Amino acid sequence: MAAPASAMAALGWWGLPLAVIAGAVRVSTPFLFVSLGECLTERSGRINLGLEGTLVMGAMSGYGVSYLTGSPWLGVLAAGIVGSLFGALHAAFCSLPRVNDIAIGIALMLFGVGLAFYIGKPLIEPQAPILPSIELAWWSRVPQLREALRINVLFLIGIVLAPFLLWALKHTRWGLILRTAGESADAALALGYSVNLIRLAATMAGGVLAGIGGSFLSLYYPGNWNERLSSGQGITAVALVIFARWDPMLCFWASILFGGAGALGPALQSLGFSEGYYLFNAAPYILTLLIMIITCSRRRTLIGAPAELSITR
Question: What residue ranges define each of the domains in the chain, with the CATH number in brackets?
């Protein structure tokens, strides 16, 4: 989550903010893609708690395709396709009568994680080609700075994607249709739109983004496949959507915040702080609890929530 320990230690105390910033960029990318995907899904009136399973399946499938083909970008594409399939599966189950989308999401999360671990066992040892990075500090002669400011293209895509989704939701026809389905299924039906088809498309789009977020884990940082790759980032990203009040740009800033919190522990350890290391590593989860406690109240808890979400009923 930070630049190498020796590099950060060589910079002294200046290494701490540099390591946190670098870690925020790296760690926030999966949070960003999953939260943007869930934001789309929930704005259509459906919750998908299965994105943790989608994230892990995306990481496994992306890594496997990269290893077999030698192309990490084909791995990203495969991860997105697998994510869309899991999204379609979630939408298909949720379209059935008397089915609870939260329960289906939990079931698919367990299914996705278990399936990824089962299929991905042969991928633990091999090394697949990983995604290239862009060196933003090419002008600097400080190697530590150049290492810290290596940015992956997926993060740059996320920077562009967040404001684009915000604009599209507010100013395009499909954005209006999506929000209508999320606010009132009866209104969408009265306008002649199929609510199930709208939510199918939104859930599949959310699955694509979650799968791509998973491919970042295995193909860039940390850049391998193992059974402890995610550490609950998919579930945390779903919580970020509530914290961000279903706003794509706030999802971006929330992801950066949580990415920085996740980088704090390794950054302090690189400067020689070994006491309470595991406590520092728990910073993102502690931050989740604190933010939810501080921002939630009877009046503000569900501000911005689509009216068709099951948590608002």
Answer: 5-131+152-312 (1.10.3470)
